[in-house]
Amino acid sequence: MYENPEASLTPEEFIPRLETKEFGRAYHYLPEVTSTNALARSMADKGGTAGTLVVAETQTGGRGRLGRNWVSPPGGIWLSLVLRPPLAPSRAPLQTLLAAVALREALLKGAGLACSLKWPNDVLCGGKKVAGILTEMKSAGENLEYLVAGVGVNANFPGNLLPKPLREKAGTLLDLLGRPVDRPGLLADFLGIWEGYYTRALQRGYDQVLEAWRQGSGTLGKKIRIHTTRGPVTGRALDIHAEGGLIVETGPGILETFLAGEVTILEK
Ligand code: BTN
Fold first, then answer.
1. Atom of ligand 1 nearest to the CA of 40
2. Are strands 254-258 and 246-251 parallel, antiparallel or unpaired?
């Protein structure tokens, strides 16, 4: 059994590090949970306020995108944040980009790692996925009632705890750095940077998020294959759309915007 000596995410160790106004101020910490997203959603359904944060040391039924499982051993950072942004449901993908941009900055600040963003929701460090974001929402017509942003960071556990088929493409901060990261510090930095982007986006719009995403992107300019509901499509990723979609040149002069899909980058 892998044991690591670093600080835990208990309120005692985490809250003193937090410098936000709202994000994480209602803090729910659990040693184990099925899925922090599922719990945060049920809290939001019962009126949980914006900024409610659920963090668990381990998840027994962590959820990934596209109905996948998300393996969540102790040592990772498994969190879900309840948000209630004034945003049309169709623009909710912007919140995923916003969280990704903030996480990339926090990893640079807290771990010295220059990571890149893979559309729509992956954070890659050293070419391997170390974090993913699953944004789930509840809406009624044009009203977004709440959004739960679930973030998983493969932090302080060795990559050999990940299922074998994932290991080629996924990694952990522990393996990349050769030492554990300060999880409470990294989480506090992340929430502070995230809240900053969020507040500015609500005041001035999402241009700053889109620009930061472009800067951090490892997808734009590359030849890619995007797996969509209508099958795989190949092309060159050109830009990010104002609502968070990916603009791809799928043939000479043919630009298509994809709102969802799984991207494979076909060139370095
Ligand atoms: C992805 O497929 O890349 C998204 C993974 C999101 C995983 C996180 S871990 C915390 C939160 N709770 C979940 O059940 N999923 C998200």
1. 12
2. antiparallel
In the reported structure, the alpha carbon of residue 132 is separated from the centroid of ligand 1 by a whole-number distance in angstroms of: 6
Helices (H), the chain: 11-14, 36-45, 93-111, 173-177, 183-204, 207-216
> Does the reported pTM lie above 0.90?
yes
pLDDT in tens, the chain (268 residues): 455 557 899 999 999 999 999 999 999 999 999 999 999 999 999 999 999 999 999 999 999 998 899 999 999 999 999 999 999 999 999 999 999 999 999 999 999 999 999 999 999 999 999 999 999 999 998 999 999 999 999 999 999 999 999 999 999 999 999 999 999 999 999 999 999 999 999 999 999 999 999 999 999 999 999 998 889 999 999 999 999 999 999 999 999 999 988 999 998 7
> Residues 195, 95, 166, 74: what is their CA dihedral angle, to the nearest 10 degrees?
30
Ligand 1 contact via 76 beta carbon (within 6 Å): no
Pocket test for ligand 1, best of 72, 79, 166, 227 (most atoms within 8 A of CB): 72
